[in-house]
Amino acid sequence: MLRSLAVGLILLVTVGIRGEEVPRFGQADASAINEMFDRYSLAVQKRDISALLDYLGTPFIQSNQSAQSEPKPIETMEALIQAFRNARDQLDARGYDHSKYVSTRITVLAADRALVNKTARRFKKDGTVLEEEAFIYLVSKTSGSWKIYGQFNQDVPYFGSVF
Q: Domains in the chain: how many in total?
C-alpha cells in the first residue's frame, strides 16, 4: 500500500495532474544557454544590433558597478539597445576589440529561468587584456528560446561565491 502511494506520488510529480509531462531544466537547456551567450557575445563584438534583439528581452534589469546606483528596469527594446550602444562606445574609446568567456556557472531557478554567472576577459586590438569582468545574468526561456532579461556587475574575486 505504501509502495503504491509512493509510486503514484512520483508519477503525479513527474507527469503532472493533467497527464502532461512537467518541464524540467536539463543539460540541453544549459547547452542552449551557453550557445545563446556565444552568439550574443559575437553580436556585441560585431556591433550587430539587429542580432542583439534575438538575445535580449524587456523589461531588462541592469546594475552597473557603482555602489550608489540601484538596479533600474529598462522598459523598451529601443532604450535597451541604446544602453548597449552607449556601453559599446565607451569600450571602443578604450581600445576594445573582443571578449572571451573564462568561466560560467548556471544556477537553475525554474524549468524556464536561471541565473548565469560569467567571467569574461576583454581584449584590446593589440591582443592585450583590457580588463576582466564578472556578471550575473537573469535568463528566461520564452517561446522555446533563451533570452537575457537582466545583467548585474559582480566583483571578479567573488565569482561563484556561495555562503
A: 1
DSSP state of 19: S
Give a yes or no: residue 141 inside a domain.
yes
In a domain, 17, yes or no: no
The distance of Cα 131 from the centroid of its chain, to the nearest Å, equals 20
Chain segment 112-138, per-residue pLDDT in tens: 999 999 999 999 999 999 999 999 999
Q: pTM here? A: 0.81
The tens digit of pLDDT for each residue in 22-71 reads 789 999 999 999 999 999 999 999 999 889 999 999 999 988 655 556 77
Q: How many whole angstroms separate alpha carbon 163 and alpha carbon 160?
A: 10
Domain housing 98 = 25-158
* Mean pLDDT calculated for residue range 5-33: 64
Type and span of the H or E element at 7 = helix 2-15
Measured CA to CA, the distance from residue 20 to residue 2 in angstroms comes to 25
Burial group, residue 162, by CB count within 10 angstroms (0-12, 13-18, 19+) = exposed
Inside any domain, residue 11:
no
- Looking at residue 126, which CATH number applies to its domain? 3.10.450.50
Report if residue 147 sits inside a domain. yes
Cα 24 from chain centre:
18
